[in-house]
Amino acid sequence: MRFSLTFRVRFSALLVAVAALSLNNAARADVPIVIKFSHVVASDTPKGKAAERFKELAERATKGRVKVEIYPNSQLYKDKDELEALQLGAVQMLAPSLAKFSPLGIREFEVFDLPYIFPTKEVLYRITEGPVGKELLDRLQTKGITGLAFWDNGFKVMSANRPLKVPADFRNQKMRIQPSKVLEAQMRALGAIPQVLDFSEVYQALQSGVVDGTENPPSNFYTQKMYELQPHLTVSNHGYLGYVVIVNRKFWEGLPGSIRVELEGAMREATQYANAIAQNENDRAMEAIRKSGKTVVHQLSDKEREQWRTALAPVHREMEARIGRDLIAAVNREAAREAARDGTKDAARKPAALMGR
Ligand code: LMR
Questions:
Q1: Which atom of ligand 1 lies at the shortest distance from residue 217's CA?
Q2: How far is the CA of 39 from the centre of ligand 1 (A)?
Q3: End-to-end CA distance of the chain
Q4: Whose CA is nearest to atom 1 of ligand 1?
Q5: How far is the centre of ligand 1, averaged over its atoms, from the C-alpha of 97 (Å)?
Q6: pTM of the shown model
Q7: Chain center to CA of 280
Q8: Mutate to test the pocket of ligand 1, among 226, 241, 282 (most ligand atoms within 8 A of CB)
Q9: What are phi and psi of 197, to 5 degrees?
Q10: Which listed residue, of 13, 40, 60, 188, carries a Cα 20 to 30 Å from 115's Cα?
Q11: Residue 71 falls within a domain, yes or no?
């Protein structure tokens, strides 16, 4: 049987196309999918270690089909650039602090910045692992971002060139904060002058006197060597600092389904790891700060802590319009449920996991 020229030409073209496609697929199978994971803290921190764990789990789960490249300590992008880099697809994954989303126009994440809003880590996890956390992650979708998980760091301490024992000690102190209106209101309620700076600029700003003090969990305070520049630290645990792990939405939805499922499993395990190590990493950092002898560590008396709580209480009401009264109420309801459960349970709880201890 003779085939027409047209048929023969078209059939050959089809063969060439199929060959090219399979070659391309084969080549693609050999070329790993690269996830650039950029963050701003040292590797030896809860977030730094969790990022490394995710890399290990993700590369194992996908049998090398995915390669995770981690860029810690603002090596690739600083605070002010990283979210835009993610939206542009210049990096695929970040884990910014929850206090850094208002520049994107998502104010609700600042609920995590409210002073003393989480009485315990249990209340925090019920929020991040429950419907409130899911609803917050969903808000990221409109910004071209997919939220994957919440990672814990811990409760913040305050540091300065002078002892910060009572609110009056904050008067006119220039205090570095993250870009959060709640943290701005917090510092003003204490009589301080808030100064938003990238995390990578804090050491230099403390050294040059651009700011007098700052706040962060001990793990950041220690790994950024702030203890070399801050003669006084107060174990206030006045506020919380955690992260949301995010990816570029187009990249994530463009992944082969099987790969995405494997990465979701790796992220679940990395999240369990992150939350399991956070308290211990911060306790370890606090011990190292004490041992350095360069910073006087102050504990608050019950009376002093009450003065902080009284001075900071108005921030909740002041921020209702910005964050959403319902959202704040949802967190407070969870706290009330926990308190009720506590009432029926043995009161002996690990003090470090309790706010304001
Ligand atoms: C800060 O900017 O103080 C923190 O968000 C740094 C971090 O990511 O822990």
A1: 9
A2: 9
A3: 90
A4: 199
A5: 6
A6: 0.89
A7: 17
A8: 241
A9: -140, 150
A10: 40
A11: yes
